[in-house]
Design brief:
This protein has 76 residues and is an alpha/beta fold. It is built from 3 helices and 3 strands, in the order αβαβαβ. It has a 3-stranded parallel beta sheet, sandwiched between helices.
Length: 76
């Protein structure tokens, strides 16, 4: 689906927990997530710290959307 959307000219960021799978499916902008059961958070963290973690991941994804790339790129 990622490649199909990008084919129309719309950039897509794939936030994922297993980067090699994202590479295999052909995602171009990849942002690693936290863990499979909780990709955008960590329930073990205090609520304020979890909010900061989520915000950091989303900001990284937004930055990836505006970054010119040449091929698959993982935004650490």
């Amino acid at each position: 689906m990622v490649k199909g959307i990008e084919a129309t000219g719309i950039p897509v960021v794939h936030i994922c927990t297993i980067v090699p799978i994202s590479k295999t499916v052909g995602a171009n902008r990849i942002v690693p997530a936290v863990a499979i059961p909780h990709p955008l958070g960590d329930p073990k963290l205090h609520i304020d710290d979890e909010y900061k973690l989520r915000r950091k991941i989303v900001e990284k994804a937004l930055n990836a959307l505006t970054t010119e790339i040449d091929g698959q790129t993982v935004f650490q």
